[in-house]
Amino acid sequence: MRWKVRNTLVSVCFVLGLPFVTPKTVTAEQGEESQVVFPDSWGGVALKTLDDHFPFEVPETGESWKQRREFLKLRTQVALGLYPMPQRGPIKATIHSPVRREGVVIEKVYFESLPGHFVTGLLFRPDAGDTVGKKFPAVLSPHGHGGRMMRYSPDQVASKLKSGGEKHAEAGQMPKVARCVTLARMGCITFLFDMVGYADSQQLSYEFAHRRHAGREGEVVAGSASPEMFFSTPAVARLQSIMGLQTWNALRSLDFLMSRSDVDPKRVGITGGSGGGTQTILLGALDERPVVSFPNGMVSTSMQGGCVCENACLLRVGTGNVELAGLFAPKPMGMTAADDWTREMMEDGFPELRRLYALLGRPNDVMCEPLLEFPHNYNYVTRRIMYGWMNEHLELGLNAPIEELDFAALTDEEGAVWNLEHPAPTERGAPHEKRILTWWDQQNGSALKDALESATPLEALQDMVRPAMTSIFDVRLPTTVSLTISESPGRRLWGETALALDVRTEASDANDPFVGVLVQRGDKKTTEGPVVVYVGDLAADAGGPPELSGRTFRDGKRILAIDAHELDAGLSEGIALRGLQPYGGQRRRASSVFTYGYNRPWAVRRCGRVLEAIAVADKLSQGAGVEVIAEASACAFTLPAIVLAGPIVDHATIATGDFRFGNLSR
Predict the structure, then answer these.
(1) DSSP H or E run through 337
(2) 3-state secondary structure 232-268
(3) What is the pTM of this model?
């Protein structure tokens, strides 16, 4: 059969015959056209939102943490659409128009992080005279919301001077520039790059990348009908997000620093505040090169990040910012707590990080300083703590404490990357979106093609696709099954009496019980032999099984039947699913990441139910074998269940109809 699918790893692994699954045979059969709709909330069950509690449970052993860390690092990469990692060729940066302040040279920088998409920013270097052959430590500084050129008004500066949040009237105007100037004066080459939509990064606008409350023409449910547009259902299904793009830009910015001949690759740090703190957490999770980190303002068991640039589908399902920050351990990591969502960190979050670092033998290499007298900030007091942390762990050898000196604030012209000699790129908006997402999709397709050409399909899919599958579908085959079988009064299926099942596994939920029946057709009834798991529509009982599975139902095997439309029977279907807005109307409309970044999708939940059924069938068969049959309405979640079940399934027959993961439209 010839499948027409997009070049995505998930699509390929689902519909190319699953050779890496290890059932003996898998047959795909085309049936009638099927439309699968993914609900975005669950009636009767409170969805987790970014404002809920995200505790960090420290594992008991170092080995347990190692396994958890590997899983979360992979999950982070997958969630950001960066698995496998796109090709990272040499950085070809343009550096121009130096500006000087005492002790520091400030230069404008731009380079392509992907073809046609530019990263812009300011490079701060120590003004140290003859620097030929010298190696300097380096710090990457994602700026966070407000932009790298954020400038306080005179009244705001006066208020901050009065409170002690700032020390200097000039430097205090531009706190994000101030930290980079001081780091350069301390001897660190520092790169302050633009987040998408800020300052000179205008190929995608600020309103689009960080607000986008209003819809766009052509949108259906999750986003635009066009697969080459951010927030579209196809882009969401491919895990392509603003957060993923921004993180890619940050990784390439780190590549830019590391490519410089004057940077010491063994002494590189990262620090950012607020949204820049989120990026600092992610960089610490994805890249092993930084040796010290200071993610400020976002390490918290409370609010996890209120912008689309800080959220991605799958990212915080079963985890949160404190645990994600812990992925940097045991390398030195510092932060502060303020009068914001981090205010409880000293009692809830930081003690757990201390226990983690102690578990790894480095109890003194994590620090959180309480500054609850200040609101959300990366102010002078916080910066002073950061300077000391970088001085110690980048081995700068400076006398402590390090005082921030004043400097003349940059003018808008001095801070602008684009000018007449270096004009801004003209491609913006929708055409630029299409360029980015097309490149992104091609990278995935090329990675899979290269893997298939360099190894057998079985090896390539096992090594590349299966890890992503287990990260996306983070449900497992139950290992313990308690089973009671009883009569089901009045219920018949395909002309036979249906037996009710009372199932308990470690995955069982009292509010969401397993729903399935056991039937057996014909005269060859037995309590031994293989068991068939059937997933389809049990409501339309016309007296016989669907033609797809007729041969199996006639040979006397026991059939464990579950209704694809009743897998969430324990939930209240009466609640209007699409009417629920888990994080307020505006943000909810901005992107599905505010739902699926914290809650398992419909397909994952139902995949878990099919895995329960497979485990029950395995218990009933007592090793005689399990077969899985699924109608087109159930293919989206039955196929991954077969993958995860592995060799327990001997044979699978799955109808797909016209359903393709790569062709989702809503």
Answers:
(1) strand 333-337
(2) CHHHHHCCCCHHHHHHHHHHHHHHHHHHCCCEEEEEE
(3) 0.88
